[in-house]
Design goal:
The protein is mainly α and 205 residues long. It folds into 2 domains: 44 residues, Homeodomain-like (Arc Repressor Mutant, subunit A); 146 residues, Tetracycline Repressor, domain 2, CATH 1.10.357.10. It contains 9 helices and no strands. Helix 1 packs across helix 2 and helix 5 packs antiparallel against helix 7.
């Protein structure tokens, strides 16, 4: 089991760094310090190995990290007396941070590069995005019930917030644009996106 984990971690790193075409089974065993038979006994081809890694290692790890972070805010939301904008703000910031982490960005970059070769993997990525959007929807609903967000707004407001704090930054990160290159840049972007959202949906006194 230790060898399995080591081979998968090594292969995942090489696939993310070099892409599918740029990584060979020989490179994987050389980097892992293992024999070819050790790898081929487990995975008959590079395609099978990549599919296993993406679904059971890369996405499993990234989804687990996301779930752990998002669950912490679910607990906080249930414990908070004020179920208004503060909890939604904290959750949105955590989601924003998660989406621009280097590991998350590189996983999405790998997915974008290989999605035509492995179209079924799209379900994995879409499932993770839906989970985050569902969490945002629950927080928005709480804020509406507490009277801090208008109830007459577009029912797709959660998707709009998702686009502001997740999709836009992810595209910028994938394109390696400098707008989110420093902590100050990231803080300014999030603060601006959050203000845009609040100005559009908050109940005015």
């Amino acid at each position: 089991m230790e060898l399995d984990a080591h081979l998968m971690a090594t292969a995942a790193r090489l696939f993310i760094e070099q892409g599918y075409e740029g990584t060979s089974m020989g490179q994987i065993v050389a980097a892992a310090g293992a024999g070819k038979q050790s790898l081929y006994r487990r995975y008959a081809s590079k395609e099978i190995l990549f599919r296993e890694i993406f679904t059971k290692f890369v996405m499993k790890n990234i989804i687990a990290r996301a779930a752990e972070q998002l669950a912490a805010y679910e607990i906080k939301a249930c414990q908070e007396d004020d179920k208004g904008l503060e909890v939604l703000h904290d959750f949105a910031r955590q989601s924003f941070n998660f989406m621009i982490e280097p590991e998350t960005v590189e996983t999405f970059r790998l997915f974008v590069a290989e999605r035509s070769r492995f179209p079924d993997l799209q379900d994995q990525v879409q499932g993770m995005i839906r989970d985050i959007e569902d969490q945002i929807s629950r927080h928005v609903h709480r804020a509406q019930k507490s009277g801090v967000i208008r109830t007459d707004i577009d029912r797709n407001i959660s998707r709009i917030l998702m686009a502001l704090i997740n999709e836009g930054p992810m595209i910028q990160a994938l394109l390696e644009l400098p707008s989110l290159s420093t902590e100050e840049n990231r803080r300014q972007y999030f603060d601006s996106a959050w203000k845009t959202f609040v100005d559009a949906v908050a109940v005015t006194p």
